[in-house]
Amino acid sequence: MLYKLRWLLLAAGLLLPLAANANYWQGQQLTAQWQQYLTDSAQLLQQDAAVLAAEQQGRPAAAALKHNEFGLTGISSAAEAQAVLSFQTPSGGWSKRTDMRIARQTGQQFGSEPNYVPTFDNDATSTQLQWLADFYPQATPQLQQDIAQAIERGITLVLSAQYPNGGFPQSYPLRGSYHDAITLNDHALYQLMQLLWQVANEPRFAMLANSTKTDAAAAFYRAVDWLLASQVMMNGKRTVWGAQHHPLTGEPVMARSYELASLVSSESAKILQLLLRYAPDYPGVAQSLAGAANWFREKQINDKARYRDADGRLALIDSPGSVVWARFYDLKTGQPVFFDRDGKTYNDVSRVSLERQRGYGWYQSVAAEFLAEYAQDKMACE
């Protein structure tokens, strides 16, 4: 029976192969709360698979069309709203890199990439919920009802996805492998926390039940607690966070072969901006902000700018007044590190394969935005 169920989920594109599953949960002494979380996730995944299988009636599922930006920049018509609604999974989320301009057909896959159905990666789910909320005032009464129900269901999924310790996986229901890690990469955690804050505080989500808004506020602060507890300490000082953290231990962990466990600059900077804007007076946040600001100042690369040649090779060039940071920093030395598909660590980006130099942002400057905002806030408080 278990084998048959697993085969069904694999065939529907709703489960990763066994070989891809990370050992986050195996051999762990889980509390009843964590065990219930995993049970709920598995049941939700099974329900998604059952709905799609019922639609297919034994026929192969039609593929979903791929589009990096969903094919839309927002919802401007009832037809677009209906199309976006049609791609909401039974569990309540949306998939990434999927064209949502034309309504999903019965039996069609909910996403173009089976391992991300649904997901919070690449702005998925949070974006659709925000779009629907923004279009809600323009909708007909019937469409408003449909949108309100969809948003309520989507927020319920987000709330259900939160781990008992306050973090969030990259995808939920859980997919296995690095998708189960608490994920800052590509701003997944930032997007979810910002969404929770908006639901709790912004008028555009006024259609939601007051209990949902209260739950969203509580979930936001549980995530803040997780961030404060998991901020990486080096030599007794607060630094920033990793791109992914172990869901149970909180330690930074690897994802893909060119994303080894390390400190991450841009995603940490966005999280710090969020804390500065929405929770500056929350216990422990001031110390977190100060420690991270000091770390960023120590790590900034002054008077340099990113440059790519005609072939896409990446280098730093002289640029007076410019400042950048490496995307990743070593957990022991605190020095910039670069990774390749061979899983090796390099201290010079020029040693990384051309394919990875072209395909990844190894130097970034988001931290400058945080430092400027933090300095302005400090001045305003003096």
Strand content: 5-15%
CATH topology of the domain at 32-230: Glycosyltransferase
Treating each run of at least 4 consecutive H or I residues as one helix, how many helices?
11
> What profile does the largest beta sheet have?
3 strands, antiparallel
Shape: globular
- Along the chain, the helix and strand elements come as HHHHHEHHEEEEEHHEEEEEHEH
Cα end-to-end separation: 66 Å
What structural class should be given to the helix and strand makeup?
alpha+beta
What's the helical proportion of residues? Answer: 40-55%
Strand numbers in spatial order across the main sheet: 4-6-9
Write the layout of secondary structure elements.
Elements lengths: L1 H10 L20 H25 L21 H9 L39 H10 L5 H21 L20 E2 L4 H14 L8 H21 L2 E2 L2 E2 L2 E2 L1 E2 L17 E2 L1 H13 L6 H15 L1 E8 L5 E13 L1 E2 L8 E2 L5 E2 L7 H6 L3 E2 L1 H16 L1
Antiparallel strand pairs: 1-5, 2-3, 4-6, 6-9, 7-8, 8-12, 10-11
Overview in brief:
It is built from eleven helices and twelve strands. It has 382 residues and is an alpha+beta fold.
Explain this structure:
The structure is a single chain. The protein has eleven helices and twelve strands. It has 382 residues and is an alpha+beta fold. It has a domain at 32-230: Alpha/alpha barrel (Glycosyltransferase). The strands form five sheets. Strands 4-6-9 form a three-stranded antiparallel beta sheet. The chain has a three-stranded antiparallel beta sheet with strand order 7-8-12. A hairpin with a 2-residue loop joins strand 2 and strand 3. The longest helix is centred in the N-terminal third of the chain and has 25 residues, at 32-56.
